[in-house]
Please model this.
Amino acid sequence: MQHEQMTALLQQRQQAGLLRQLKVLDNVKGASLSYQGKSYLNFSGNDYLGLSADPAVVAALAQGAADYGVGSTGSPLISGQQRPHQQLCAEICDWLNVDAVMLFSSGFAANQAMLLGLCAEDDLLLLDKFSHASMIDAALQLPGGYKRFLHNDLSSLQKLLKAQQSAVGSTPPLATSAITSSTTQSAEASQSGDLPKQTPVVATEGVFSMDGDSPDLLALNRLCQQYQAPLLLDDAHGIGVHGEQGAGSLAYAGLATTTAQCLMANFGKALGGQGGFLACSQTVADYLTQGARHFIYSTAISPAMAVAMTASVQRCRHDQWRRDSLAQNIQWCQQLAARYDLQLLPSNSAIQPLLIGDSHRALAISQQLAEQGIWLSAIRSPTVPLHQARLRITLTALHKKADLEILFNSLVAVL
Ligand SMILES: Cc1ncc(COP(=O)(O)O)c(C=O)c1O
Model:
């Protein structure tokens, strides 16, 4: 692309109130952050349990770096998977009661590996309409294509499953996965509704990142079983937060993690670190190890991070007070919103969005809140649909009731 074209596009985005700009923070700690020397109450982070600066986790990172070095020095199959990585995998296997865990440099990479690896050429991926960009980008590359069902709408999913069941047409003979396939069906073709009989695979999220809501996993699982569709679940925002010992959205629904053929989660949110993982059966892990490009051709996570994340998972499992405190904050947030007649989107998670609509307005409100010492970013298109700009309030176990009162007093003043 030519430089002039880029400048024109940037101007267009600026005029539409959609220009994204990087802000370099001094630091982010607990429920607050500092920017250009000024302190703010932070309602935009994903450190739901306050583990990113927990002394035990910080000490583990330092000790891990001293013992094993900062970098893993290689991809997992070459030299990158070391004892700390193995210990982290074992800790997660025990936590989620699964046979195998694979580590990735990010949740984004883990999601891509899951979808590209586990959807065979004769599979059709059925994906929730509000799925994260990491899943959509993988879906676009699938040889068998994908279709989207309406957000959290099981009747919409069932329609697609039924259509697949009754589809005529021939099934491709060889069930190779996208990781070994050379053919790529375009998204347009995959959306056309004129597909041969394919095996459905369902993918969704435990907690949706921009809405904070969740599917009815019990009912969704029943549908998947009825139509023999494997379930691939992204639980980036549910892990650590929901379920006993923070085992995630499936545990919260009373389901085993193994209900999903593969569960993706990450370390960058409730666990306060960085990286992603897949939790699955040994067969699934062995299969992905043969071809998952994000696993094979990428440097393994830092061994120091693996030591830190082992400590973080242990804290997360043990410290029920963090989940209790977060649950209390969610309740207070909803009560304050109701008191001031502010309509939050329906959500029982740490993500409590306030819909604004217009991007300019959302941005202006966010800036006015910042003047009052509140950091609450405006989320705009294309992260959310156009005209559905919002203030995505995210809560942590470390917020105090007084912090929430300040937030709502300021919101009322600004709105
Ligand atoms: C739902 C969801 N899935 C996947 C990811 C990607 O995870 P990571 O940030 O570890 O790459 C995110 C993070 O933004 C997310 O919100």
The two ends are 41 Å apart (CA to CA). Residues 171-175, 181-193 have pLDDT under 50 and may be disordered. The longest strand covers residues 199-205.
